[in-house]
Amino acid sequence: MKTNRVNIKQAITKGETSLGIEFGSTRIKAVLIDNNFKTIASGSYEWENRLEDGFWTYSLVDIITGLQAAYSEMKQEVERNFGITIRTIGSIGISAMMHGYMAFDHTGELLVPFRTWRNATTGVAAKELTDKFQFNIPERWSIAHLYQAMLNDEKHLPRIDFITTLAGYIHWLLTGNKAIGIGDASGMFPIDESTKDYNESMINQFDEIIASKGYRWKLKDILPKVYISGEQAGELTKVGAKILDKSQNLQPGIPLCPPEGDAGTGMVATNSVRKRTGNVSVGTSVFAMIVLEKELSKVYPEIDLVTTPNGSPVAMVHANNCSSDINAWLGLFREFSEAIGQKVETDKIFEVMLNKALEADPDCGGLLSYGYFSGENITGLEQGRPLFVRSPESKFNLANFMRTHLFTAFGALKIGMDILTKEENISIDSILAHGGLFKTPVVGQKIVAAAMNAPVSVMSTAGEGGAWGIAILASYMMNNEKKDSLEDFLDRKVFKEVEGQEIYPDGYDIKGFEAFIERYKKGLVIEQAAVDHLIL
Hints:
Pfam families: FGGY_C (PF02782), FGGY_N (PF00370)
Number of domains: 2
Protein name: ATPase
Keywords: Kinase, Transferase
Family: Belongs to the FGGY kinase family.
CATH superfamily of the largest domain: ATPase, nucleotide binding domain
Oligomer: single chain
GO molecular function, one term: kinase activity
CATH topology of the largest domain: Nucleotidyltransferase, domain 5
Number of helices: 19
């Protein structure tokens, strides 16, 4: 232990470290790792978006304050634990929630407040561009925000000199380089896998669409330059060092890897960048990302096409609703236990109740529920009403009740995944799952394996998160002497000794989920009726 401590102190002093900073929707996190990819120290800053003039946003003040606070807390942890002041770092990486819209003029002034991925204000633009490109353009993509601003004839448009994402902005601030990682770029504008750059024909199509507007800029001129994982995308400037480290101990000249989106860093953190692999992230919402080995045959509004940090195409299925209704019901059971004088820890309630689902009928005994706290794009619901439905003939018991709520948590996701596996015949060798649901062993994995008809693993590193993922990408840039591909680097070095528990899909569960999903689809009219008529 003492030797390890000495080694870490030397690594910090010599700058044999990598720093990852990720801007999530509720937290900014900084993680410092050593060359064995182990976390040395971390810091964080809690923040919230706010609705201003009809747009969800974060202020520039909050962005810079959070960046400095997360770095400072990490730096102080190093000083406290190792008695060393950080003066240099081997490499740095910046990551943030994907998509959104940040537009600047030639002086670097932000022209309108940062518009985040959460804004659902670009529906007309997204549909028009999808029809024009014959490529799905989701509402949250940067190009949809830009085109919607044009349709709205917003005054800032002629002044645009540069548009980017939040990660791209922070990177620009620290390095002066208008760069973006290909994964994050794929949430701005469609990517051509063969060139590892923006799709040239679609760029030209867009310029033709807007030619009559008379702007002095062309689209390619205002987009950041695309970089691939492993490439250096700039270095920390004197100004950047002062911004990042308010104490001004940090020296400039540190190389930075390409800034990435949270989807890409999630793939890295779960070792899911190889073709025919994927990951599922479970929380308030749920999304699956499958690395494709072939193009899809047509456009599907349910499926976003993005890329891994090394440019491989990825099909992303994102459902707005997942665990909120389960949490609400289990909160009710906790209230009941307290009411009868039996205070039970929340984790214990989750464990007991989730395990009951393993005793249920395969198809949930005819029960049905929708955990729609909000609308659901995959099933075409603009709003949501949490709903539990049964017939007099249903087998209404606790086991079926719990299995129903687990199945429905992945119902919309399964509809999207069925497009990939049944209509497009996409093969999936393995899925890595992460999220609080998997703290209870086996149950969540069995349900997800049935929904996706693929083996599902949970790794010990899955909780490390995107800040660790972007630190890994920063390390990959500096410590890849053998010039391994990103997939091989992760397999051979980062995850070589990481253990995971893999569960294969059970035929009993698969048949049960298929029966349930047919009931789920037919019952969507009930959910729509609740939206139409249950108004408080």
